[in-house]
Amino acid sequence: MEQTNPLPLSFVLPNPKDLSGLSLGFIDGNFEDLRDLLLRSSSLASNLNHDCSDLNDRLIHLRTDLTKHAVSWISTSLSAKVSLEDLRFNLESLLCLPTDSVGKQTNWELQKLVEELCRIQNQRKYFVTALKLESLVGDLEDSVFHPIRSHKGSTLQDLAVKHKRFSHAIKTMNEIELMLGDVTRHHSQWRHLVESVDSRADKSLSVIRPEVIAEHRAFLSSLGWPPKLATSKVEHGEVATIPNPLLLMQGDQKESYSQSFLLLCGLQQLNTKKEKRKKLHMPKEDSNVGLWATDELVKPVASRMEYHFMQWAEQPEFIFELVYKVTRDFADGVDDFLQPLIDRAMLVSCSAKEAWVSAMVQMLSGFLEKKVFPKLIDTFKEKHMKSEAISSWFHLVDQMVTFDKRMQSFVNSDTCLSYEGSSTAFSQDISVMGLFCKKPEWLKTWGKIELKDAYRKTKEDIKNERAWLVDSERTRLGNESTSRSAKYVLSTREDYKAPIVADSFLNRTWRLIDHGLSLPAILPRIQFIRATATKFLWCIFKFMLLEFKKIDLSYYSLFEDTLIQACGPINAARYLESKLREWSDDLVFVEMWAAESSAKVDRKPEASCQGCFFGEELKGLVELETNWLMEIITVFLQQFDSLCSDNFNINTVLWEENVITGSSNLTVSQGVAEALDNLRRHLCVLQLNMNPKDFLDLWRNLAEGIDHYVYRKFCSGEPVLRRKRFDRFEVDAEALLTVLQPYCVRPAAFFPRVREILRLLRMHEEEKARLRGALSRNGGNNCLKLFGISNLSAQLVEQFCRCY
């Protein structure tokens, strides 16, 4: 057999240029030439191994002695602590005893001694704490930077050894964190000690965390995660279910994953404790962080799904459908498998299902934030592409809102603890609409797009010829079939006799509000609604005001068509007011009003009225309605005055011309009859076409105005009065009271001054004599109330009694 030649030394020995100076010096000191190296290398290697073994034994012995001495010193220190505590207590007791001026020096010395003892005790505490922390940090650094090498075994055995090492390091870091938390709370002056330990512990954490995550990812990859997205199999119009590799694990493999999962949870808990301690004196922030272990499941799935996302950039509905399907298919398996591990890790208020859904939603939000919205914003800035960008924006937002609602329904499918519409019912981490909460500039752009679109569509709606018309036939039938009291229980547009365009106003306003309510955070929600729905309401008010100004309301050309046309904006305003009050009473708007009041968002606290979310808008609506009603009442009063300006005046000659001698044959004056006939006809038109509440306000205020008008006319007469003029006034006044007979049971109650004038005119001589006597004795208005007169002045009554 042929003997193989050994390799040349040039192929065995390293190049001297690659060795450090210390290594070359060591070799030159132990070997004279190449032959000496070949003969003595094995013995030198044996000696070096023996020396290393001795040094390791000595290091272990020193570490054992150090631990024994530390324990002994701590024991002695504890006994000294007890003695010092007793001594301090005794000295403080001595200081409390009453002393004279001779003992003041002694007390001062004792006080100094107590202060010194306290200083020594604090130093002892510091040294004990520093020693414990040094021991723990040293143990941590040994386990992290100098791990014990294990013999090669199976993959799962090697993984178990690594998990044991990781677990020991995390346990040590938790003990360190516990001590640092105690020091931070009770000894804030030891900040240099805390900073020093933090620095060393963070270095260990920066090493151990990537190792734990890398091992976890490698183990997931060995399981076949992520699974293939079975999007090519379609059954009955739906994508086939995706298999879950987590449910296929058994035995040691399952236990290894459990240990890896618990390690990640432990690291996350440790990180949370450190952040809370460091932010102890800082303002609290709402930061709802997901579960790291669940995030590690989602990241490889995201990398696989991103390919499909890029293919469907112009069809976002496919993206949302794929994310929803993957989330739904894996949710039950994740919940069944991971929830026991979460409970085992003692994570409080943590749900595996919610953590999985949150991670998937955040993955989708990240893609939209980086890949979709920036391109959409750039397209929107180009004028020739703006209309296409707006259409794509609306489509994308609609898909996001629908996706959030589906996710919310899915998460809440097994619980009934939340209610729809609540500001706290849906977490920002389980909502892709939360992207607008993180990007205020995008929220502002979205608001502008929504407002301009609603304004444009509303301008098209009001161009319709029948937009402001009131359905008189419908309201007439409703009045015939409804009782007097039920007429004021209103709910629908037909009940308020509002025009068709009022529904368009409300539907577009609610659409803007509904989009705002889809935002998970309450302050961005308020900001969006104020920037869209509230501004749109003021645009609506402007449209109604312009429509009312088109109407020619004047007493010399007051026709039925004019009154019917005026009822359109008035009824629309009343209908909008009722809906805004209804919305303001909803719990969602009450929460937003409370949050806005406390945060003072976009408006001063005193700017809004009536203590509700739409207070300022309601104030504007009420002011519009009042002004419009007052315009109609003013026209009615002007017409009434023009027709009967020569009536109701005792001193007027024309009023006396047609008086017949027998008072029983007197008829209503011609001017009064014509004025009352016009008034009755106009009120009938308004009753048919105006909503009952505004009509009630109108005729009551109109009655008050006519009552005041007649009273002023009566007061303008001369003191010398004649009986037949009284009879004329009585006949005309009685006719005036009958005008309101169809609308109330006691019309005289709405003409208090006219009623009391008639009472004066109908007094018997005996009652007049008593009235004159009471006025001469007492005077003033107090005695008039005894005669049932409270709205006429004492001067007028006294003049009447004196002259007649």
Automatic annotation (TrEMBL):
The protein's organism comes out as Camelina sativa (False flax)
User: Do you know which PANTHER family this protein is assigned to?
Assistant: RAD50-INTERACTING PROTEIN 1, RAD50-INTERACTING PROTEIN 1 RINT-1
Write down the Pfam families for this protein, in alphabetical order.
Answer: RINT1_TIP1
- UniProt-recorded name of the protein: RINT1-like protein MAG2L
Q: Which domain of life is it from?
A: Eukaryota
Q: Which gene encodes it?
A: LOC104755021
